Amino acid sequence: MDDRLPAQLEVQGLIRAVQAAGGFATVLARGEKQAGTIMLICCENGTKLRAYERMPQLDGSRRWTLSKTQDIENPYEFAQYCARRSAQDPDLWQLELDVANPERFIGL
Prior knowledge:
This protein is of the alpha+beta class. The protein has one domain: hypothetical protein tt1805. The chain contains two helices and five strands; from the N terminus they run αββββαβ. It has helices at residues 7-20, 76-88, and strands at residues 24-29, 38-44, 47-56, 62-69, 93-98. A hairpin with a 5-residue loop joins strand 3 (47-56) and strand 4 (62-69). The radius of gyration is 14 Å and the shape is globular.
């Protein structure tokens, strides 16, 4: 039996937590409701974009890992990365968290 929360429930909880803290959160791409993977795009006032994904570890756990940061010199590269990830994984949820210190919502 899998002890994971359904992805849709986890996404809804993150959105509510960010909004309760005075931030903005939105779903950019919907994935599979039960077992979809989640990519969080964290930013502060729409700047300093960072993408986090929960990656499987050797011990079987799944930890949030920084997978991409926005390059100031080439801001479109970040959007291209997100588009590639969606194309690779149709079950992927993409969620933007725009709030001060967004990493606190994923335990970092």
